């Protein structure tokens, strides 16, 4: 069972799309194991986006993610990183497939509604930036015993 860190970014909160975005992940079958509504500090944003430091859009990225509250969550499930990235759609909304979150609802790369970890290794690092181990809840869904 893999885990991933998902953020509903400030544009998702401002556009009141929290329910819409979470429901897509739930309907797919991902399990919510942690959730936190917070205003990210610049320190946390710099840590979270450390891999992008030095890129042209880095300052914009940090400033946008700290511009308002975000919803952070840990989702668990089989191949959680890949499954959530498929549901999110491509980074650039004009390349995101219709049916995906970004494909259906985003117009700009800088405001693409949602963050999702891009590898199991990065997921564990990103999860640790936002959650203490004690804030992650271990429980079973009825569907968890399905074979797949
Ligand atoms: P993703 O969010 O799909 O993992 P990423 O990790 O490459 O994409 O980049 C992180 C975020 O940075 C992305 O969601 C939006 C922003 N971004 C990426 N490339 C950009 C660009 N060329 N111009 C402006 N913002 C960009
Ligand atoms: Mg990324």
Brief summary:
This protein is α+β, with helices and mostly antiparallel strands. The protein has helices at 10-14, 18-28, 42-48, 58-65, 80-88, 101-105, 120-130, and strands at residues 2-8, 31-38, 70-77, 114-116. Strands 2-3-1-4 form a 4-stranded antiparallel beta sheet.
Describe this structure in words.
- The structure is a single chain.
- The chain is an alpha+beta fold.
- It has a domain at 2-37 and 69-131: 2-Layer Sandwich (Alpha-Beta Plaits).
- Helices cover 38% and strands 18% of the residues.
- The chain has 7 helices and 4 strands, in the order βααβααβααβα.
- The longest helix has 11 residues, at 18-28.
- The chain is globular and about 45 Å long.
- The termini are close together.
- The structure holds 2'-deoxyadenosine-5'-diphosphate and magnesium ion.
- 2'-deoxyadenosine-5'-diphosphate (DAT) is lined by residues 57, 61, 91, 109-110, 112, 115, 118.
- 2'-deoxyadenosine-5'-diphosphate binds next to loops.
Shape: globular
Give the topology string: H per helix, E per strand: EHHEHHEHHEH
Side-by-side strand order of the widest sheet: 2-3-1-4
Number of helices in the DSSP assignment: 7
What is the CATH T-level topology of the domain at 2-37 and 69-131?
Answer: Alpha-Beta Plaits
Percent helix range = 25-40%
The total strand number stands at 4
Bound molecules: 2'-deoxyadenosine-5'-diphosphate, magnesium ion
Quickly give the structural class.
alpha+beta
Average pLDDT works out at 96
List low-pLDDT spans.
none
**Beta-strand residue percentage:** 15-25%
Which CATH first-tier class of the domain at 2-37 and 69-131 would you pick? Alpha Beta
**CATH arch. level architecture of the domain at 2-37 and 69-131:** 2-Layer Sandwich
Separation, N- and C-terminal Cα atoms: 11 Å
- Corresponding CATH superfamily of the domain at 2-37 and 69-131: Nucleoside diphosphate kinase-like domain
What is the gyration radius calculated from CA atoms?
15 Å
Largest sheet: 4 strands, antiparallel
